Amino acid sequence: MKNAAKKFYVFLIFVFLYAPIVTLMVLSFNASKTRSKWGGFTLKWYQALFGNRDILQALFNTLMIALMASLVATVVGTMTCIAIENMKKRTRTLIMGITNIPMLNADIVTGISLMLLFISLGLKFGLGTILLSHITFSIPYVVLSVMPRMKQLNPSTYEAALDLGAGPVYGFFKVVFPELLPGILSGFLMAFTMSLDDFIITHFTKGAGVDTLSTKIYTEVRKGIKPEMYALSTLIFITVLILLLLVNRAPSGQKEMKGVKL
Amino acid sequence: MNKTKYKLLGTPYFIWSAIFIVVPLGMVFYYGLTDRSGTFTLENLISVTTPEHSKALGLALLLSFAATLICLLLAYPLSMILNGMKVNQHSFIVLIFILPMWMNFLLRTMAWQTLLEKTGVINSILSFLGLPPLAIINTPYAIILGMVYNFLPFMVLPIYNSLSKIDPNVIHAARDLGAGGLQVFFKITLPLTVPGIISGITMVFIPALTTFVISNLLGGSKVLLIGNVVEQEFTQASNWHLGSGLSIVLMLFILVNMVITAVFDREGEGSVL
Amino acid sequence: MNRILIDLQHITKSFDGQMVLDDLNLYIRENEFLTLLGPSGCGKTTTLRILGGFETPDQGKVIFDDRDITNLPPNKRQLNTVFQKYALFTHMTIAENIAFGLKIRNKSKAYIEDKIKYALKLVNLEGFEKRSPDSLSGGQQQRIAIARAIVNEPKVLLLDEPLGALDLKLRQDMQYELIRLKNELGITFIYVTHDQEEALTMSDTIVVMNQGYIQQIGSPEKIYNEPENAFVADFIGDSNIIGATMIQDKLVEILGIRFPCVDTGFGTDRPVDAVIRPEDVILSSPDKGRMEGVVTHLIFKGVHYEMEVTANGYEWLVHSTGMFPVGTRVGLDVDPFNIQIMNKPASEDEEAVKTDE
Hints:
Low-confidence stretches of chain C: 347-357
Order of helices and strands of chain A: HHHHHHHHHHH
Oligomer: heterotrimer
Strand content of chain C: 35-45%
Shape of chain A: globular
Number of strands of chain C: 20
Largest interface: A-B, 83 and 89 residues
Number of helices of chain A: 11
Number of helices of chain C: 8
Order of helices and strands of chain C: EEEHEEEHHHEHEHEEHHEEEEEEEEEE
Number of strands of chain A: 0
Helix content of chain C: 10-25%
Structural class of chain A: mainly alpha
Low-confidence stretches of chain A: 252-262
Largest sheet of chain A: none
Radius of gyration of chain C: 24 Å
Mean pLDDT of chain C: 89
Radius of gyration of chain A: 23 Å
Mean pLDDT of chain A: 87
Shape of chain C: elongated
């Protein structure tokens, strides 16, 4: 009984979280152009999607920015973690404090502050300014997910590698990096997801005529969102879902293999 | 040893954070504390007391407070259940809450319009059950719902994290010493998860307080929050000084929140990741 | 005597303004089993880390094989370390762990495989090549850590409290194993521990350290029987350290009673410390001893009884195979050669006496 109640509660929350997603998926197959009416099943929006240059361009922009921002953030963030680990406590606290600013500050303030910076630097608003902004708010995600791994690291393992004749670079990539890898990967994934999902900061740092999916959707809100957009989000969501299921299976499969060998 | 060499690896980020985090914040303060001619003024800060602005701020505070409270009340039992389910894959739980972010947040929020409409899915179900229809679309209630929907994961993850870090033997010890279920909860579990709760509150309250998107999408154009005012100053009215001034006021709330977080969560225990 | 392999000259090191080593001088001979012994924070681990190249001394030189290696990075040194918590690479198999150093040195595949076999045999873990470090017990992990170090044929093996994480029985077994290994390999072992029993069992030479200073260097027998100061006496085994007066050569007054002893050269009527090991206190019937006392505590320890005897206002710790129940009046005596006389430290600070040798 009690267990059933717990499961029902989790189920309700799950419905709450995923109801809008299911709604969007259903809408992507809706023949009627208005959201409020079901006009029968159709695949025409999926067809139309591949002919919609604007949406595809926005998708390309979104993916490129997310990929580049999260890659740069991952490299820079990981380097920073190594540096922080070797610092005195006071500098460490200062750096971590600054790193926490974009995490804790409101996106709207981060957005306008970057907008003011780019204006005063005389930068042309466009993909470049969006990328700079996304790198800025992505690095903290990497730092915060690599740092705990860094702390768990037994410092002796790196010293053991040096002791056995490894140079600092070889020792890092052979011994430290594999230990940090889960943290680095989850940092990368977090950064990528946040960049992909960001609207507010992009809203303030994009130029006219340049759009990511978020900003494109926002401008369409008043005119009515094109159903192709639902089709696209459905495709993205399903792709990610499948990818994540595969990834989530792979490591556990490997573990079993390892266990068999022992 | 050669610690200095490793410290050098931090240089790119130190320069980066100076240019893209510290300087921009400085600029917000500069604009917020000057007028168009560049002379120092507190006018922009004080303008928050005008009826229009204070109403927007008050409403934002009220709605975000309600949303945070609801998130906490929903998330805590949920986290406890998830923690008790012994799903051995911690990442799986994180995944369930992160996954929705892969569908654009604006679209997800928009979808609530469809669900909440007079003839929408929810009202159809309600009328099928013989219940009165829900007419909350374009009201502050819809905004609260949007806030809860969008920010609930940020409350669940830190609380779940701090719950999963409690050594089961601590609970056993409390039981062993004679504590009942409720006593264990109030004397052991709850105090041990305070860092997670505080971190969750911060993660929900700040974006809720400052949002302009959710109010725009679900509140119709009738409801104006402080976030909407700031956004309009920058994108439509082009009064950066006023917008910055109001941002500084917003940051005061954030600062208070940061201080509270720092006090309760020194070890970073309640982090989301 | 073998030739000197390592010479530490005037090593000084401080961390954040806190002096950890102060003008430390020490040489280590080829093929020696040398133990750095002391309480935590005494500077023993720092000394080892300076030898391994993980710390650079603020001042002073490390001479290895007549070469100055003070600033040589660890990967260029002919020393290998066995770390405190093993520091095995958990993402690699046992074989990959052992092969790590050899691969860096570009050894041939056949050579590496031979070496892995040889090393695993040496540490009694044959057939463990494919296993993961996580699947091994603490003792086994420790053996792998040793195997990983010795395949590189270092001239010196540095061991940083390697047995600290093991349970008592295993620790004793590993002590014999380490002695056997050292003899088979014929290389120098430098061993860091805070466990005096480990030090006494295994070492050729023990270096007792405290607060960054060397307190005494000597063979285990010498350190145990002739501690040079109260710190060493107190740290190595249990001792009765009693304030006394040296009446003249070979005669000392302890707690008002005169005892003949064998020490000379302390002058006359000088305050000194007398060290008497608990097993050297002879208990007899009250009328026979030099001093009379009452047994206040009694514990059975297996090999012997441990007793506390109050006599002339001092609580003597006594180990004896004979049993005297609590409350028994006993006589106490000590043979002259079992009384060790030490100079009293002039002040508290000087308890950490500087010694050059």
